[in-house]
Amino acid sequence: MNNIVLTSCGIRKESFKNRFYEIISKEELNNKKVLYITTASDGEDDDDKTWMDEEYKTILDLGINKSNIIEYKIGNDININDFDIIYMMGGNTFYLLDIIRKTGFDKVIGDFINNGKIYIGSSAGSEILGNSVDIALGYDKNNVNMIDFTGLKIVDALIVPHSNRKEEFINDLKNKTNENVITLYDGDGLIL
Length: 192
What we know:
Elements: E1 4-7, H1 14-23, H2 26-29, E2 34-37, H3 50-61, E3 69-72, E4 85-88, H4 93-103, H5 105-114, E5 118-122, H6 124-127, E6 158-160, H7 167-176, E7 181-183, E8 189-191
Parallel strand pairs: 1-5, 2-3, 2-4, 4-5, 6-7
Antiparallel strand pairs: 1-8
């Protein structure tokens, strides 16, 4: 299953892009339809969303045709079968997981991945695929008052985005858990 891509802030480094092109070529990407999900950003308190523009540019830099990228908010009507790639943006982890649960979009994600289509997660979009999101309490506001921190459990690990900015946090986490910990550094990522 080479169809799950975990990142902190998109596929930026050239070496990581080249690994990504091993699962899908630049030529193929030009014709792929991307569901660009920006829901998690709605849970952010910060009005400065320039990081979203930068990340959108990383999608274009992969060679995806701009007309094939559809921005989407979870809960709106969509035919998921029209898309080849889900790109799940970052933002507030708790807000994102809460909306996914309330709308049943967790099943949509699971089916999409099980059908061999590509899921690219960025930051919170990666973190929700793990066993738990309670680690986000260390850096995200729990504005939805979440008490069940169970992730989607598609990846059997705890996923920590922006790990290059959280060295001490990660060392503490590894000492407190028996779970696998996947660390994602900005610009790089992991293909499962």
